[in-house]
Amino acid sequence: MAAQLVVALLALTSLSAASEPDCKELVKPLVLDSHSPIYGKWVLHVGSWDQSSLKNDLVSVNSSWVELSASSDSGVITIYWADRLNEDKCLQGVANATISGMTSHTTFNINGHTSYHDGKYYETCADCLLSEDTTLLPDSESKGRYLFLFTRTGSLEPSELETFKKQAECLKFLPEYHFSGSDLCPDDRETSASPPAENTENDQTDTEPAAK
Ligand SMILES: *[C@@H]1O[C@H](CO)[C@@H](O)[C@H](O)[C@H]1NC(C)=O
Ligand SMILES: *[C@@H]1O[C@H](CO)[C@@H](O)[C@H](O)[C@H]1NC(C)=O
């Protein structure tokens, strides 16, 4: 009798599991350390939001890329970002993210405006970066969340997009998506790096000790 009951219960649980996305499997936060698969350059493919008031800001972004790199301080990640806005303006800048466990805390200064963000990263497809961004108001109250899927090239397989949509559902995002374009902002660091290089003659004596 007991064995039959167990079998019946198992059948019930597997039935209910089949109808819902398996969120425990789909949503696994990444512990952020130097081995995390988050480093390098990423191109935004799609974003979602959890409150309709956040939609306007995201749809004004035509394309976006970020570069995450480890800094000399193991608790700090450097984030270089570049957004192309719809009026064909490129905004880019750099920010430091402080890491604690599975969360990053970042302060962005954009044209004199300061904004605070908590980031979480989740397991995702190979060569993908899935990041949840909570925008915080100065009193650290949440303004809402975005979910961003970046890839190395900006493109994505249809099956990977389906997985993203299920992950977004598990994380309670709205079933609305903004797809990013592929016309990326050029990297300003590459062009602005040349003028100092021409001054090496003057600086030679200063820079030499650093090379040793
Ligand atoms: C980006 O801008 C171009 C030119 O204005 C426009 O054709 C394209 O639809 C935009 N793409 C996105 C994703 O907003
Ligand atoms: C990031 O941290 C480094 C090292 O502490 C500092 O030199 C740099 O100015 C910081 N950058 C920003 C944008 O805050």
UniProtKB/TrEMBL annotation:
CDD domains: lipocalin_ApoM_AGP. Residues 1-18 form the signal peptide. The keyword Aminoacyl-tRNA synthetase does not apply. Keywords: Glycoprotein, Secreted, Signal. This is Uncharacterized LOC111228391. Its main location: secreted. The keyword S-adenosyl-L-methionine does not apply. Residues 184-212 are annotated as: Disordered. It is found in: Secreted.
